[in-house]
Amino acid sequence: MTPQVEQDQYGGAYMNQGMYGEPYAEQAGHSSSDGAFESPPTPGTRRVTRSKARGATNPPPPVITPSYSPTSTGNTGRGRGRGRPPGRKNNIGEVIHSHDDETSLYHIIKNSKVSLTNIVDDWIESYKINREAALISLMQFFINAAGCKGRITQQMQATMEHAAIIRKMTEEFDEESGEYPLIMAGQTWKKFRQNFCDFVQTLVKQCQYTIIYDQFLMDNVISLLTGLSDSQVRAFRHTATLGAMKLMTALVDVALTVSVNLDNTQRQYEAERQKTREKRASDRLEALLGKRQELEENMDEIKNMLTYMFKSVFVHRYRDTLPEIRAIAMTEIGVWMHKFHANFLDDSYLKYIGWTLHDKVGEVRLRCLQALQPLYASEELKGKLELFTNKFKDRIVAMTLDKEYDVAVQAVRLVISILKHHHEILTDKDCEHVYELVYSSHRAVAQAAGEFLNERLFQPGDMDAGKTKRGKRRLPNTPFIRDLVQFFIESELHEHAAYLVDSLIESNTMMKDWECMTDLLLEEPGPHEEPLDNRQETSLIEIMVCCVKQAATGEAPVGRGPTRKVSSLREMKQAGEDKQKLTEHFIVTLPPLLDKYSADPEKLANLLSIPQHFDLDLYTSGRQEGCLQALLVKLKYIVQVHHEPEVLETLAKTLEILCTEGHSIYTRCDVARSTIVDMIVASYKEAIDDWRNLLLGEETPNADEIFNWNLWDTLFQDFRDIESGLPPEALKYCLSSCYYYLLWGLRDLEVAAETGGLTHSNFREVRDKLDDFIEASQILIRSSPHIVIKEEAYVGLCDLLIVFSEQLQNHTAIGELVCRPDRNLQILLNEFVQTYVFVPEQDAEHDEHRIEELHKRRNFLAAYCKLIVYNIMPTKAAADVFKHYVKYYNEYGDIIKATLSKAREINKVNCALTMCLSLNMMFNEVQRLSGGRNARQHEEFFALKELAKRFALSFGLDAVKNREAITALHRAGILFAVTGAENNSDDPTGPPPNLPFLEILTEFTNKLLKQDKRYFTGMPSSRGEDWQPLLLYRNSLLHGETDQLPTTSKRAYGRKRHKDPDSDHDQNDDLSDQEFPGNLYG
Q1: Which of 1043, 1002, 834 is nearest to 919 (CA)?
Q2: Other CB atoms closer than 10 Å to residue 832's CB: what's the count?
Q3: Are 38 and 321 in contact (CB under 8 A)?
Q4: Where do the DSSP E strands lie in 124-166?
Q5: Of the residues 245, 324, 342, 651, which has the fewest C-beta atoms closer than 10 A?
Q6: Where is this region: Disordered (predicted)?
Q7: pLDDT confidence band for 1075 (50 / 70 / 90)
Q8: Contact criterion met (CB below 8 Å) for 752 and 758
């Protein structure tokens, strides 16, 4: 098939049907069934250049009939050739087409020591002298750029068709490496890719006035690139497609230039023609007419070239199997449509982008959207996109949820452009799809959705913002903030104000309009205004506080943005300015806000966090000491009347920030803090005295929730007494207060040790209190009737064991405070984990409650595992945890996996033995459940094998590194399997009761080295059904047959063992695992 016939086939298939009528059966990435790569075969036996298609020979005659399109007829050429006649071969032509590394076009462009313009100019000069030689050098460049070392000779060019030349190059192509310049890594190749594209475009630009119309250069280049782009060789196809697409882009630029010149000539001709006969210059009219005719012929010529290349290359390559080629096609068609929209911005071309929006590769989908973006951004082109938008709007909206975030971002931006120019096409449902993305975890997607929200909901208009009750005019952003609050409330699935704020704060100034927000909260509504209800006020305060935090810190909320972001100087400067502005505003308005909402804990907890983001020096530099005093008075009042943990914790944090040393307000704030603490202590003493007096009078007091400070004796007295009359919540606070007392006591000792003021009495006091707390906590865990007290005691105990661990040995003076858990304490903590962590999932009525309970249990497990990870308890203490790895994988798999990894880092052998111990425990449980009979058929036995498989996978692939650990595990497993044989009184010669454990051990045999397998095969060979686990284990050592159980008959049989003559006898490893007990606490 020749290219001419090929166009008949493809032109008809694509152009004669309905514009979008055919289904998307030719999605990119799916080859046609006609060939391995694509439908059209390699161009046929005969090179069809443009001149030959017209019936011309080479060199071309002066009169030709140009025709690129198979459907075009009657096109007449200009009556003269524009190229220079073929000259004699000269040295310049010979040098450029030579394939010598130093002088070939490929080498020169790759090294780019000379500007591309100069390279092209030199090539043009050689072309004018000897165009055959210059053409060969250009063809050689495209061949070399594909990574082929084959050489095109003058004889080949003179006697062979392009298809034959391509076949010859294919035979000489070295495809073993699979790499070629366009895909190779490194700065050199990256630069070459750019130079390759620039060279093609510069060549056309420099030849645009004469040479490209000579019916020799473009004929041959287009024919070569068309043939190469249809090659089965990926490198040829990729390189030629890029070259052809860039060639088309360059021709589009030429067409634009010709179009401008044609318009200018036409205007000049019309102006001259409209002159009176006396003033009209007939020779000038003839010249302008001749120039116009020539430009029209040039435009026709270029359009024919573009049409031919589009049908010959693009139509096949836009659905190539290689995504890089499909991406090139989509990128360039977008350029053509934007630049030469008169010719390309048509539904017959747009449909290719629409179909490729469904491509399975994200990069190709991205290029489609990027191609459409400038088209939709242009007001003048909107009319030509209407049919396309109606057809593919749903797909573009769906792509806002694309799994590739870059694609999703571009899709949202495209929807914004559609909203601007085709807003009537988008439905409310389409918009809601994009609205929800402001809560996306990916920041770029969320911010793009925020821009859509701005365009859709927050566009300024002529709306009157209204006035407050006292006549103050509302700020322009007031209706937008009301809409934002309502939008936040209606987003029922998302209650993350910080995410919403982050989506909008960089694109909408209302997010930093502090006065507008506080006026809505403090000012009474005007006569025609609707007041904010309680939910709206709560939402506005939450949004406002998130805005304050992000404006002051410049940091995205947790879960968005990089974990380690280094702010630029510009961002730091912006954050500093925002911090100053918000501080100046809220210094004055925060006390009234606290006063108005002092009875609402939820609003208070948010408002109290605002001073944490102040520039504290502005209190004095701005002469706002009165506002500071008002704030401190409000804080004291809140402590007196509120007992909610969230409110008090936020207030304590704010006080800590206000009392930062080095600020001018430190003294005043420190005095206020001391006053508040004294008030709390006095309140506590008064309340606890009243409580105890009531108990002494044998009265029944009401439950009293209290907040405690560091009053050790009375607090410890209350929580140590299990039968204390205090409510469980009060006891919990007593317990946590004593815990924090010990932490502060340790800090005071560390400070005293550094300053030299440490005394033995201080040290002894903390040590005694620590011992008392640990002892009392153990009693509570064992005997407290309240689960909340058990949990608090357990968490406090685990945390204190970490704080008072071996790390204190670094401080010689306080090294004796190190607390090491004894065996009884280890047992107690393990029992707590087994009882309260590894429990069946309860069918909770509310998912929220179920999630909270799971989170709490995960914290319990993490507290225990940290004791293993930090080597505070021995690795074997984790055996009871490891055995639940598979059963509770969904709930705690990540925690147990991390503990396994850290335990291996501490000691590989002990970790392996702990795994074996876990398997032993599980095996004993299986034996108990099965009654000692047919344990291998029990359901739990298969679960045990799965656990062993997971353990085996955790060792990785490095058998040498894990050799000692694996051999230790096998030895321990074998010892466990043969234990109990001496107690088998029924049949002294029968198998040991634990022998089935060897089947579990087979999961680890593939981790043994070859010589170690030989060591373990030296076991006695026995026969019979009951000994099958031993036979299975031996076979797995010899042959690796661990997946299928061999079927055996009742009669005993033996198998000859094959001896490997190449295996070496391994010396016995002297592993020091005798100290590792056979069970955990026995």
Answers
A1: 1002
A2: 21
A3: yes
A4: none
A5: 342
A6: 1-95, 1043-1082
A7: very low
A8: yes
CA distance 762 to 746: 10
The residue written with tokens 């803090």 in the block is 673
Q: Is the peptide bond prior to 66 cis by the omega test (within 30 degrees of 0)?
A: no
Q: What pLDDT is stored for residue 27 in this prediction?
A: 37
Classify residue 55 as left (phi > 0), alpha (psi -120 to 50) or beta: left
Task: Say how far apart CA 728 and CA 704 lie, in whole Å.
Answer: 10
- Using only C-alpha atoms, what is the Rg of the chain? 42
Residues 6+ apart with CB under 8 A from 97: 133, 134, 136, 137, 140
* Number of residues written out for the chain: 1082
The pLDDT-based confidence of 554 (bands split at 50, 70, 90) is confident
Please, what is the Cα angle at 131 between 125 and 136, to 5 degrees?
110
CB 505 within 8 A of CB 551: yes
Which DSSP state fits 756? T
Q: What is the pLDDT of residue 1054?
A: 37
Q: Which two tokens stand for residue 672?
A: 């206020």
Higher pLDDT, residue 710 or 912: 912
**Residue 901: its H or E element:** helix 889-906
List b or e across 700-721, with b for residues whose CB sees 16 or more CB atoms inside 10 angstroms: eeeeeebebeebbeebbebbbe
CA dist 490 → 436, 493, 495, 587, 645 (Å) = 11, 9, 10, 32, 29
Using DSSP's 3-state secondary structure scheme, residue 534 falls into: helix
Nearest alpha-carbon partner for 811 in 850, 766, 781, 851: 766
Q: What distance in Å separates the CA atoms of residue 581 and residue 551, rounded to the nearest whole number?
A: 10
Q: What is the pTM of this model?
A: 0.68
Q: Rounded to whole angstroms, how far apart are CA atoms 654 and 91?
A: 84
CA distances from 587 to 575, 593, 631, 1014 (A): 18, 11, 9, 80
**Residue of 470, 462, 472, 365 whose CA lies nearest to 409:** 365
Instruction: Quick: pLDDT tens for 1004-1013.
Output: 777 777 766 6
Is the pLDDT at 64 greater than 80, yes or no? no
Q: Tokens representing 787? A: 């689960």
Secondary structure, 3-state, 830-849: HHHHHHHCCCCCCCCCCHHH
Q: Which residue has the tokens 């159980």?
A: 1045
CA-wise closest residue to 230 among 279, 183, 162: 162
pLDDT at site 938: 65
- Determine the Cα–Cα distance for residues 56 and 58; give it in Å rounded to an integer: 7
Structure tokens at 581: 């502005």
Distant-in-sequence, close-in-space partners of 1033: CB < 8 Å, separation ≥ 6: 998, 999, 1001, 1002, 1005
Separation CA 945–CA 935 (nearest Å): 12
Residue 466 binned pLDDT confidence (cut-offs 50, 70, 90): confident
Distance separating alpha carbons of residues 1034 and 1028, to the nearest angstrom: 10
Q: Does the structure show a pLDDT above 70 at 825?
A: yes
Q: The tokens of 61 are what?
A: 């005659």
* Range in 326-335, 518-527, 659-668, 716-725 with the lowest mean pLDDT: 716-725
Bin 1024: left if φ > 0, else alpha if -120 < ψ < 50, else beta.
left
| Burial category of 1047 from C-beta neighbours within 10 Å (exposed 0-12, middle 13-18, buried 19 and up) | exposed
Neighbour count for residue 495 (Cβ, 10 Å): 13
Confidence of residue 29 (pLDDT cuts 50, 70, 90): very low
Closest CA to 781 of 833, 743, 715, 857: 833
Q: How far apart are CA 216 and CA 85, in angstroms?
A: 11
| Torsion sign across C-alpha atoms 410, 414, 420, 423 | negative
Closest CA to 2 of 199, 157, 223: 223
